[in-house]
Amino acid sequence: MKINKLIVLQLFAICTFCFSLTSFGQGQSGVMLDKIIARVDNHYILSSELEEMYNSYAANGQKAPEKCQILESLIINKMLLAKAEIDSVTVEDKEVDNELDGKMNYMIQRFGSEKNLVEAYGKSVDNLKTELRTQVKEQKIVEKMQRTISGNVKITPSDVRKFFNGIPKDSLPYIPSEVEIGHIVRLGTVTREQKDKLRNQLQELKDRAEKGEDFAMLATIYSEDVGSAKNGGDLGFAKRGAMVPEFEGAALGLKPGEMSSIIESQFGFHLIKLIETRGAEYHARHILLRPDYNKGTDMSSAVRVLDSLRVLIKSDTLKFAKAALDNSEDKETAETGGIIQDRNTGLGRLTLDASMDPALYFAIDTMKVGDLSVPVSYRTEDGRSAMRILWYKSKSEPHTANLRDDYEKISQIVLSNKRNHALEDWFKKAQGDVFISVEPEYKNCRILGLASGNDS
């Protein structure tokens, strides 16, 4: 069996397309007749999935591969999920919920407002999140399986040079302008009025529960943690260290059946009810209320901090990277010295074109290399209001690829190729561990080297 290189590469992008505008819910597009076209153990692929994936390429301005290739990539995805079940590979609910919140906030920004999103699909945000949660969880499991399979792959400078020297000179790619942008982010402060309001609301719910109302029902109705609300606020068993310290400390201080006082964490305000403990694990429900970051946030403190940092950086008293590491509340970029990374490549260079975040694109359009902006408004991926200062670190001119300027980019290609080889080897071995069946109508496709309609 030889897996098409294009298909293997698609594995790293396939889940991104699951959240394209065409496949995000069904919206108002009408009812589609559906049927199962492939099965991998207990995982099924529907004809609607194939069509949505195919259409999503056009929605993202890309040429779609053949449907046989897309079907193969979907089956590979399901193979990873099936093997994850066999090998007991799982992801934490907290990780899924954080990713889901980020996806939803991105969609809300794309549509301009939560109201526009709801009107476009005829469903509430909570309903859309519920529908997407399974997809997000599968995406995280697939990513974890990929890391497990190819995470130990390494490359050397010799590998990179050999690959580059093997490219015909007239086939070297043309690299567009790229920029390095750093930012330091400070979150707005939730006002005392907002905090008091949320505490009072949770205290009222606690009073109702103490008078006999069912805690699980109250959580289902009022909790803003969508993932657990549908289960009555049930978070399942959590190991020590899995939850934020404020939550865990309060939960472990309870006896089974007891409710906590109102607890504040980075996610909002919690009312917790302990169900039981089991060794080093504990089982709890909670009701979460989040601040309204649009109406109840004070930016004055964030602006003061950023203004002070800007003065120190401009006077060369403090280096930007050090300032970001010690002060930025965007932890992901703080660890890279504030440099914003390309989510597709993981590199600290952003292509200067329409693919860039519009807010960032227009901000640096008025800046010169080396400039440091004044504090500007910023919305984090999880929807919180913030301020940030931007540093225009560098800009490269368009050029033909070369080892000196593009070593990092070329090394990523070499690493990706090696990982693909590791995945190919894994697929050869894993094929015998799972049941694969494809409908006869795809007889012209050879899925993973199998004739369609045959079972592995």
Automatic annotation (TrEMBL):
- The UniProt record lists the PpiC domain at 176-276, 279-376
Q: Give the signal sequence positions.
A: 1-25
Q: Which Pfam families match?
A: Rotamase, SurA_N_3
Q: Which UniProt keywords apply?
A: Coiled coil, Isomerase, Rotamase, Signal
Task: Recall the GO molecular function terms of this protein's record.
Answer: peptidyl-prolyl cis-trans isomerase activity
* Highest taxon in the source lineage: Bacteria
Coiled-coil annotated residue ranges, if any = 188-215
Q: Which SUPFAM superfamilies match?
A: FKBP-like, Triger factor/SurA peptide-binding domain-like
**What protein name applies here?**
Periplasmic chaperone for outer membrane proteins SurA
